[in-house]
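=== RUN LOG ===
request id: a7f3
mode: sequence -> structure
chains: 1
length: 259
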Amino acid sequence: MAGSMERSLAILELLARNGGQLPLHVIADTLNMPRSGAHRLLAMLIEQGYVRQHAEKGEYQLSLKLVSLGLIYLSTSGVADVSQPILENLARGSGELARLGIIENELITFVAKAQGARSGLRYDPDMGSNPPLFCTASGPAWLSRLDDEQALQIVARQGFGNGHDYGPNAPRTIAAFLEVLHATRKRGHAVAVDSYEPGMTSLAAPIINPLNQKVVGVVTLAGPTSRIPAERLPELGSLLQDAARELGEASLGSLYFKS
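=== RESULT ===
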C-alpha cells in the first residue's frame, strides 16, 4: 500500500510539474514504472477524481480537484486573510509584483501575490512554484537566518542546477553563493539582479515569527531590471523590510504560520 501511495503521489507531482497532458508511456518511463502498473494507478486516480484522460488523445492530466483542495486549505488556514492586504499595499507602493512564499520541507512555495505594475512590462510567474534557492532573492533571504554550514547543506541538497538555465549573475560556486549570503545578512534583505532570469531583478526579506524568531516565509518584490535600477534598490528594500515586519506580526493570526 505504501508503495502504491508513493507512486500515485509521484504521478500527481509529475503531472503538476509538466502542466499539460502526458501520455502513459512518458509517465511510466519518467518514473521508472511498468506501464501496466502506471495504467492501474492512473485508473485509480481517475476514479478518485484527481486525474482525467483526454477523450481523443488518451493522454492524462490533473483535474481541478487538487487545485480546489489547495485553495480551500489556504482559505481556512488564514494565510490569505493575513497576507493579502499587506501584499497589496507593498505592490502599490513599489509598482512591482509582491509575493508571499512559505517555507516547508526545505522548499519555498509562493502562495499569494499582488501585482503593482499597471503598464509596461509585467513579471507575473505561476503561483505554487518552488524557486531555486541559490540564484533567487528568496533563497538567500531565508538562508541568511541560518549559519553558513546549514545554508550550504540545504543548497547542496537542492543543487546549483545547470548554469545555462539562469541569468548571467547567478552564483555558480560555493564562494559566490556565500558572498551573496553574507551581503544579505548585512543588508537585511536579498537582491538578485539578472540572476534567476536575464533582465529580471528581485528583492526578498525573511518573515520572522516574533515569538520564536524562526523564519516562516519570505516576501518578495520582482520586476524588469530596466524598471528597477540600482538607485531604486534602497527605497524598495525599505518598503520590503517594512512589509516583512508586518507579515511577521500578522502571521500570529494564521494557524498555518503557527504550525
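=== NOTES ===
The chain has ten helices and seven strands.
The beta strands are 51-53, 60-62, 97-104, 107-115, 190-193, 200-208, 215-224.
=== END ===
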